[in-house]
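User: quick one, fold this
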Amino acid sequence: MIPIYIPYLNKKAKKYVSKCIDTNWISSQGAYVLKFEKALAKYHNVKYCIATSGCTSALHLAMKSLNIGKGDEVICPDLTFIAPANMIILSGAKLKLVDINPETLAIDHKKIKNKINKRTKAIIVVHQFGHSADMDPIMRIAREYNLKVIEDNAESIGGKYKGKKLGTIGDAATLSFYANKIITSGEGGAILTNSKKIAKTCYILRDHGMSRTSDPIKKYIHLNLGYNYRMTNMQAAVGFSQLEIINKILKKRNTQMMLYNKYLSQIRNVKVRSFKKWCSPVHWMTTITISEKNLRNKLIHFLSRNGIDARPMIFPVHQARHLKKYFNSKNFSNSINISKNSLHLPSSTYLGKEDIKFICNKVKLFFKRKY
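Assistant:
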């Protein structure tokens, strides 16, 4: 079976993790956490980076640092992994969903204004599957209505919008280093920001609301409620080893994207991702949309029988069991259509040209046999 994803790890990951064990620095206080944070901040050319236990906890901290809570409303795309929607609700705010643009698969900026009222406090923008959202009009709306912008860049690290690295445009951004992401630490995430205030709040809340003073007597004074959202030194060691080779990873993955697009675009029933001129995409997950209705699941089963692990597109947020009673599906036609008819193909950095040709030939065979 060709799996949907395998982490791309090198010898340095083992070396750095072994160093953590040999020095007994295995928790969140080791040197690699700070190294990883500094390296991520430098890579993105931002002032602050706060490493966390995951992207979900990073989203929670980002919202807390912006004082988002009860009585507030936060705008979020309908087609995204559930994490940002859940964190909005767990922060005490009201979730306001917006349909996606069917080409970028990101939030449709033309539909944002209709969701804004006096309680709206922020917009969460998800850069979906390696393609950026159209940030200029979103930032204009945010300035017009005095809204904060959080970029969820879990899937698009290294991507750019009009030359700017994703994760550096809004007030804060979050990253994911889960095992299937472009770079990984197994589990883990981070917050990026140029705001000293946001960074200070995130540092304190990440560590039980504890004082960050160097005074050993006052160190364990707790300033306010907080969480245990810390990244371990071993996780950071793996992440740091990944960041050292990120350019190599991105080059390999973008070559894969070009190969997939070359072979799959020859198949009449398959629509591959297209990219806007203002976007410098990265290849996270190969996503295709089937033009004929009700064939997506049949193709996934066919590929599975032929040793290929394909996955369905994520479900729209409004269809989640705990949320569907609050939303009208008529408002989300694009996210419904894309979700129902799209799937992901294997996207490991290890995949070579012959692997991709094999996968694409099986997709072609499926349609040639008329399913």
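User: anything notable?
Assistant: The chain has two domains: 11-242, 246-368.
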